[in-house]
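S2.1 Query sequence (5-methylcytosine-specific restriction enzyme B)
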Amino acid sequence: MEQFAEWFVGLFREIVRNIWSFITGFSTLIYQGFIGNFITYAKDFIHKSESFNFLDWVFSIIGIILILLLYILLITLIVFLVRKYFKFVSVEKDKETLMEEVSNLSFELNKLLDEKNASLALSKETDQNLKKEDKQDKNRFSLLPEIDLKYKRKNLITLMKSEDQLRLDELVKRFINFSATNLNLYYSEKTVRIFFAGMATSKTMILEGISGTGKTSLAYAMGKFFNHDASIISVQPSWRDRSEMLGYFNEFTKKFNETEFLKALYEATYRDDLTFIVLDEMNLARVEYYFADFLSILEMPNKEEWKIQLINDIKEDDPFHLKQGKLQIPENVWFIGTANRDDSTFAITDKVYDRVASIEMNDKAVFFNAERENHVELTYSYVSGLFNEALENFQISQKTLENLQKLDDFIIDKFQIAFGNRINKQIHTFIPVYMAAGGNEIEALDYLVSRKIIRKFESLNLPFLQKELEDLVSLIDKLFGKMNFNDTKKMIKTYIKSF
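Output structure tokens follow.
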């Protein structure tokens, strides 16, 4: 290490000494060439001139002048050559700059020519579409006339295949296999039975539960299964009335601001298959505010009265299926809302729950092996016929009706909550369809009682009703058996444990 250090230090010193020698040598050369030599010449001249006579002085002066002229000539030549060099370099730079400017001008010229050609082409296209645009500008609707054009104002006819014309229980199994093998979505038979029975019970359904249990996916899968994709509409917290969902007429622009919801609803008027319109996270806003009109209209027994007012006046170029400013809500459409339960959402009121079919989805999907199945193409009339057949062929047993009445009397007496006419009607529709889909009447009744009646206990002062709740569990065991009514008993026991 010491030898390396000694060598390296010595090398470094030698390099510095040589650099310094070069600098001092170059400086000495410049000094000698322009100053030092002249001093030496002058001293030599002064020493020699001491013995000069007159003639020597004359020739000396002439010689000095000639030498100065030679030096001046040499310096002038050097200056000339330097100036010549810099002028040459400047000219070359000017040439490069000029070439670059010429290149840029050429590029800009080509660009202008391209823009000119594009403008001419656009002008021709604009001229060709002027009449069409003028016509569209006069039409206060934009999305709905496109649907008229798409279907050519003719209703779509669904051609059903014989292998697709299945019973409800067969449809349940085929859907489960289809969603598992084609969509990697897994649902239990009970969930799918409840969905089909809910379709028969109400045109509005609510799929609720914790996040991530496949609520939106279930509606999406149904659309794929029936070969008509569901329209998924994201509900916004700002929705306060129906105009947020359906759109509204702008008095300033004289245009109707259409929405995707209205577009999906209008398109359903041209189809005879099943249409699912999904209101995703519907309780981000108050359902009873923006969906109030539909909750009321869809309760009317006469389906000819299922009309929603969109606009007050009438124009010839209005959408084809808009009659007297009203849109007929088609029978083949279902409104499916998904709802999470957390602090960011509103509670769904009894007014809404009483009118809809609700499905509780709190269980994660369980993987299973399934046989690959294809989608089905069925008309609404065929599916509606399956529901009607279920009402005729699967009647609720008399014993179950009697036990239901006893349960109703007990709940009225102890909790002042009754099975209203609306709920009774839903029971007599839901249970037969659920049975036709492969379930049994006690399981169906259990689900309805828990969702329609026991859920309402949340508004009661339950800590003072503990004995009544325990008596209710005992009565249910007595009426329906200890192994049955698990959904209802589970909900009641949850209330008891919360005290």
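The beta strands are 204-209, 231-234, 247-250, 255-258, 275-280, 307-309, 322-323, 326-328, 333-340, 357-360. The first strand starts at residue 204 and ends at 209.
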